[in-house]
Amino acid sequence: MRSEGGNLLDYPEMNLGNILKRAIRYQASEMEKVGTFAHTADILIREGNHAIATFNMHQAFELGFRFLERICMGKARVTHSIISHINYCQRYFPTLRPFPKTTDMENNELLLLLEHSYSVARYGNEFELDRAQTISIQKELRIFIGSLEAIFNRHYENCRMRIEGGETRLPQKNRDDKCSHGNVIEPSIGQRLREIEIDHLRFMEKVQELKELQTNGQ
User: In Å, what is the CA distance from 158 to each residue of 27, 56, 163?
Assistant: First the structure.
């Protein structure tokens, strides 16, 4: 049994095609958990329970980061700190950065509210934030979920094409219309998702070019 945070897909005896199928099942399972917390947060926001809604969004962010770390990096960081997850992923996924308005994460009020919500909202009654702040965090979560899906799809296709060859098979979702559980995405969020996906694609192309240069140089 592997330790928590280990790579569930590292099975040297498993057929590569079966590993791809397992990756799809794992992605569906983990993103369902993320979507459940996000959907619960939506309900709590409508009810005016902003503190517990933010705690649920924290859980969605944390599970999303852990999924991506395990599936694409090989090992998840076992921590409840969203800032720690952002820093951990920075080298591998520089475009995956929630709350990008400031380069100094310690000065980002919304990120700090999300960071503290795990312990304060869960175990105390002194955690408060207003509706506008909660809605802003909700928008960042929707962008984050879309980014996770885009990164997974890109990495899955890279692996599949190296194993099987051929054209892209994954269906392209229209993120301009819906997010998880039918939430409408504002045009500005859809635009940011497209920009993040383009940036990530360019980054992965540069990584591939470096790998080819290193291989040819050996």
Answer: 16, 32, 9
pTM of the prediction? 0.71
The answer to whether 67 and 184 have CB atoms below 8 angstroms apart is no
CA distance 78 to 158: 27
Q: Which helix (H) or strand (E) holds 64?
A: helix 50-68
* Residues near 90 by beta carbon (within 8 Å), at least 6 away in sequence: 97
Q: Compute the distance between CA of residue 209 and CA of residue 215 in angstroms, rounded to an integer.
A: 10
Identify the helix (H) or strand (E) that includes residue 37. helix 16-47
In contact, 49 and 32? CB cutoff 8 Å: no
Task: For Cα atoms 39, 43, 44, give the angle at the middle one, nearest 5 degrees.
Answer: 115
Phi/psi at 125 (nearest 5 deg)? -120, 10
Tokens of 16: 């590569």
pLDDT tens, residue by residue, 36-79: 999 999 999 999 999 999 999 999 999 999 999 998 888 899 99
